[in-house]
Amino acid sequence: MKGWIALLLTAALLCQLEPVYAVLHQNLPWLPETPPIELPRFYLTWEDAVRSREENDGNSGPEEDQPVMAEPSPEDEWALLLVNADHPIEREFCPELEVIQPGEPYQADARIVDDLRAMMEAARQDGVDLLICSAYRSYDQQAYNLQRSKEGYLQAGYSPEQAAVIAGRYIASAGGSEHQTGLAVDIVTPSYQILDDGYANTAAAQWLLENAADYGFILRYPRDKAEITGIWFEPWHYRYVGREAAGTIMERGLCLEEYLEETGAPAADLT
Fold first, then answer.
1. pTM of the full predicted structure?
2. What are the DSSP E strand ranges found in the chain?
3. Which residue ranges does the record annotate as region Disordered (predicted)?
4. Residue 64 catalytic?
5. Which one is catalytic: 47, 75, 104, 234?
């Protein structure tokens, strides 16, 4: 009993550090003696997002320290950029960013912002409120998020090896996160802002499943594709791939890796 109390106190302390985006921790077969627990996800807080935007907008350092802007790709090829653990991008990679909504700190690749805004407005007209809780994240911010997640599991009693494996199933490594491309957004709804499986049952999640492809977005990490993507089910994570690819992917129930393999479509390589 004391052990459980300690775990709960640890989780409670962690929850004070950032808004709580709960993780539905899965029971892993190689952890038979370690009960599953819930820990908060470590995503950008509002303050982190504001600071990140200010840093991107006001960086006045030497020219060599500036982010390397993405080189133009053939039409639509840029939208098929594949980023995962096996296809990382460099630390310096940064797209041309644009604020998604006036007064909000979140930024995305400037080329997808119009479609993203149109999708959110269409949802609003259908009576569904979409809320972005994370968008572009730099390499360093992603590294910070992953480290914070590992530390949370360590404080809860997991070994370093266990903490690294579990955290990596929820949070991509630095360089392996789509958020650094500016093509991915995490979308919730004001009435349900917890990043767990329960979000999939909301009207917002259902609307996105049915309509996101019309605006070039796909559910990037479906429940049945974890073995391929390396990331467990994230019903809030949507990725821009362009309308044509999105329609095929969502209609056929594919993930991006499968689409690129089956169609032979060129995946932009900007590393």
1. 0.74
2. 21-22, 40-41, 68-69, 93-94, 97-99, 107-109, 131-134, 184-188, 217-219, 237-240
3. 53-73
4. no
5. 234
